[in-house]
Specification:
Blueprint: H1 2-28, E1 32-39, E2 42-49, E3 77-81, E4 85-87, E5 90-92, E6 95-102, E7 108-113, E8 134-140, E9 143-156, E10 159-172
Length: 174
């Protein structure tokens, strides 16, 4: 009797241990978010994972300057439009695109890539971007912003904006 109780207690502790570890792993992932809105007659959506600052320096440290970044966490960020658009004056056909960025201190390159559904990074931590599938690249200027803890995208009548830490990166779209 004593050994069956002991073995039952061990099983309960083993199950609790497993459940605790599964929940910790799940919490370590950045939450999935989306932004949607109208730009002209087009419906635009952005699907992304939203990491938080958590006391870290983001620009130039966690996200290095002058290196390709997945523009979010976890899987590659996906930008979708149901109509053709003009992004910073350049034509972007209707469709879905992975959104990548090359952050810089005074300018950013925004990349719309036709490959979607891939993890955001390769094994070594490098952005999972095949440049052969780039459809459009534009250069934009970041601006100072109030502190924003979690990475956020906005879609409004002027275009989209990536907002995180103390930086806002507006991209004009018509």
């Amino acid at each position: 009797m004593k050994s069956s109780i002991h073995s039952g207690v061990q099983r309960i502790f083993a199950i609790l241990f497993i459940l605790t570890n599964v929940s910790l792993i799940a919490c370590a992932q950045s939450p999935k978010k989306s932004a949607e809105g109208k730009i002209g007659g087009a419906t635009v959506s952005i699907q992304y994972s939203s990491p938080s600052v958590k006391g870290r320096t983001i620009w130039g440290e966690l996200v290095p300057y002058d290196k390709i970044w997945r523009a979010g966490a976890n899987a590659a960020t996906v930008f979708t439009t149901d109509k053709d658009l003009k992004v910073e004056g350049k034509k972007l056909p209707a469709g879905s695109y992975s959104l990548f960025a090359i952050p810089g201190k005074s300018s950013w390159t925004i990349i719309f890539n036709s490959q979607t559904g891939q993890p955001g990074t390769k094994k070594g931590g490098e952005a999972n971007l095949d440049r052969a599938n780039d459809v459009l690249t534009v250069t934009v200027k970041p601006v100072s912003n109030t502190m924003t803890e979690a990475l956020t995208y906005e879609v409004n009548s002027d275009g989209i904006a990536l907002i995180w830490e103390k930086v806002k990166v507006p991209v004009k779209i018509k």
